[in-house]
Amino acid sequence: MRKKEPDIIRTIIPPYHRLAPYYDQLMDYIDYDIWVEDILNFIRDDGAVKTLLDASCGTASMAIRFARAGLRVSGVDISPEMIGEARKKVDAAGLTDEIALVVGDMRDIQFPEPFDLIINLHDGLNYLPDPGAVHDFFQHAYDLLRPEGWLIADVVTPLLCENHFKGYREIFADETGGYERVTDYDSHTRMASTIFTFEDSPTALQLEEHLQRAYDLDEVKAMCKASPFKKFQIVDDEDFRPADGSSERFYVILRKA
């Protein structure tokens, strides 16, 4: 008689519950210095920018760089595990007094003082599942800004997802165990799904699913026009020309009138 294969127990866990310690390794191809340079270039004529909120701050890679550039920084992320990793990095950088980190939803988190600049980068808007959720974030960001304050976000487009997300697979292993990553993209729904699998034993797996929605230029323009911001521009993230159908990623730059 053929021996019965053992049942595999798969447990669904929240996004970043296990991935957080691996996040910096996962993103090690990102040149954060260029992102910071871009943002500072967009606001270079506004000498009043002193405070910054990093919405979806992750492990604080951007927050640390902006603090070193002289800004007073707050960071918020919905994942307690990501904020835990961020605090370790901020403490190690000697910036505990310059950067305040909190766990919360960027669509309703409250702060006692307005900000001069809010950033939401590395696909943060794409993690909001529909234009209504993006509108809620735009409205809340508007309320958190001082007059003439800035909101700068980036958006991943369907073109990028078509080119880079379909059928992507990666395995990473180290002394702590590692993970398997599988990413795919549905052109019809414009949803990108990434599943990270962590193996605790041959019969016990933990799975994190990360969902993103790609937004095209017309959708982004409509969301900006529906927002309380009256001034906005949308530019290609590579050369800052006005974004068009060939752009894989946009910068969305909004200013509170």
In words, what does this structure look like?
This protein has helices at 23-26, 32-42, 61-68, 80-92, 131-144, 158-164, 217-226; strands at 9-13, 51-55, 72-77, 99-103, 115-120, 145-156, 168-172, 179-186, 191-201, 204-213, 231-236, 249-255. It has 257 residues and is α/β, with parallel strands linked by helices. Helix 5 (131-144) links the parallel strand 5 and strand 6. The relative contact order is 0.16.
The chain-level structural class is alpha/beta
**Can you tell me the CATH superfamily of the largest domain?**
Vaccinia Virus protein VP39
What low-confidence regions span 5 or more consecutive residues with pLDDT below 50?
A: none
Multimeric state: single chain
Helix-strand pattern, N to C? EHHEHEHEEHEHEEEEHEE
What is the terminal-to-terminal distance? 76 Å
Strand content: 25-35%
Q: What is the CATH architecture annotation of the largest domain?
A: 3-Layer(aba) Sandwich
Describe the structure using short key phrases.
alpha/beta, Rossmann fold, five-stranded mixed sheet, 26% helix, seven-stranded mixed sheet, 12 strands, 257 residues, 33% strand, 2 domains
Question: What is shown here, in short?
Answer:
The protein is 26% helix and 33% strand. The chain has 7 helices and 12 strands.
What's the structural blueprint in terms of helices and strands?
Blueprint: E1 9-13, H1 23-26, H2 32-42, E2 51-55, H3 61-68, E3 72-77, H4 80-92, E4 99-103, E5 115-120, H5 131-144, E6 145-156, H6 158-164, E7 168-172, E8 179-186, E9 191-201, E10 204-213, H7 217-226, E11 231-236, E12 249-255
Parallel strand pairs: 1-10, 2-3, 2-5, 3-4, 5-6
Antiparallel strand pairs: 6-12, 7-8, 8-9, 9-10, 11-12
